[in-house]
Amino acid sequence: MNSTLLVTVILTAITLVLAAFVIAKLIGPRSYNKTKDEPYECGIPTKGTSWMPVSIGFYLFAILFLMFDIETVFLYPWAVAVGTFGKAAIVSIGFFLVVLVFGLAYAWRKGALEWK
User: Fold this and answer.
1) CA–CA separation, 25 vs 29, rounded Å?
2) What does the alpha-carbon distance between residue 94 and residue 38 come to, in Å, rounded to a whole number?
3) For 7-28, what is each residue's pLDDT tens digit?
């Protein structure tokens, strides 16, 4: 890639980001009061501190869900185009599914899918 083009793209990106911040600061609402600084959920004021420890199981379950969900998304284009690629597509998706199943089996064996 041409270095002049790269510099132009980077400068354009920086300019657009800075312009977005400046425009938001200039035309954004400016009403500040004590109520706006209070944390709330669904319109109900919170009780106690908002810094509560959350079980790591929630994060692990969410990451596993995203991982398998995104891998499933990759199956759709393959299913649409499998007829045009023939045996090579079947072998490659077979390998993909084997890795997916091994990952699921590993997570299951480690107890990552159980709520404790």
Assistant:
1) 8
2) 53
3) 999 999 999 999 999 999 999 8
d(C-alpha 109, C-alpha 87), whole Å: 32
Alpha-carbon span 97 to 57, nearest angstrom? 25
Look at strands 40-41 and 44-45 and give their pairing: antiparallel
Cβ(44)–Cβ(66) under 8 Å?
no
At residue 40, the pLDDT reads 65
Alpha-carbon span 113 to 63, nearest angstrom: 11
**Are 112 and 61 a contacting pair, CB within 8 Å?**
yes
Write out the two tokens for 71: 């891998």
105, containing H or E segment: helix 87-109
